[in-house]
Amino acid sequence: MFSTLEFKEGDMKIEMKEKVIIFDPDKCSGCRICELVCSMQHQGEYNPKKSFIRIMANEETGVYIAIQDVKCDFCNQCVEACPLDALSIVGMEEAIIGRKNVTIGSFPIPVSSVIEA
Ligand code: SF4
Ligand code: SF4
């Protein structure tokens, strides 16, 4: 169940209903199974460059981050496929409350246009 969260600033009010993908870099091994599953689910081919989630490595630190394409429909396939439970999908409210309670660890992944045409 994904609830809404209301934000106010002066006369402006927005309701956030979005879900977010939460990524845990401490668990991710960089196997890229999530990319393969997403690209097959949505593009009909195993092509990480066409996945709506992309895993990127920082070579100096060995830390991975995940990037989510704006076209992601939160189908949950990547979450189910991840062998290390590094991904989860939650409502925005849960993400914000979770972020308030931790200073390091899991975080909502950035959203961008990452797939190649
Ligand atoms: S998020 Fe999971 S499936 Fe994706 S690269 Fe990391 S460990 Fe592999
Ligand atoms: S939840 Fe998004 S990133 Fe994951 S498989 Fe579905 S469309 Fe792809």
Residue stretches low in confidence (pLDDT < 50, at least 5 long) are: none
Helix content: 10-25%
The strands making up the biggest β-sheet line up spatially as 6-3-7
Largest sheet: 3 strands, antiparallel
What structural class is derived from the secondary structure elements?
Answer: alpha+beta
Q: Please state roughly what percent of the residues sit in beta strands, choosing from under 5%, 5-15%, 15-25%, 25-35%, 35-45% or over 45%.
A: 25-35%
Mind telling me the C-alpha Rg? Answer: 15 Å
Distance from first to last alpha carbon: 33 Å
Ligand catalogue:
iron/sulfur cluster
Beta-strand segment tally: 8
Order of helices and strands: EEEHEEHEHEE
Overall average pLDDT = 83
Shape: globular
Describe this structure in words.
With 117 residues, this protein is an alpha+beta fold. Helix content is 22%, strand content 32%. The strands form three sheets. The chain has a three-stranded antiparallel β-sheet with strand order 6-3-7. It has a three-stranded mixed β-sheet with strand order 4-5-8. Strands 1-2 form a two-stranded antiparallel sheet. The mean pLDDT is 83. The structure holds iron/sulfur cluster (SF4) (2 copies). The site of one iron/sulfur cluster (SF4) has 13 residues, from α1 and α2.
Which helices and strands appear, and what pairs or packs with what?
Elements: E1 5-9, E2 12-16, E3 19-23, H1 33-43, E4 53-58, E5 63-69, H2 77-81, E6 87-91, H3 92-101, E7 107-108, E8 111-112
Parallel strand pairs: 5-8
Antiparallel strand pairs: 1-2, 3-6, 3-7, 4-5
One iron/sulfur cluster binds at residues 38, 41-42, 52-53, 68, 72-78.
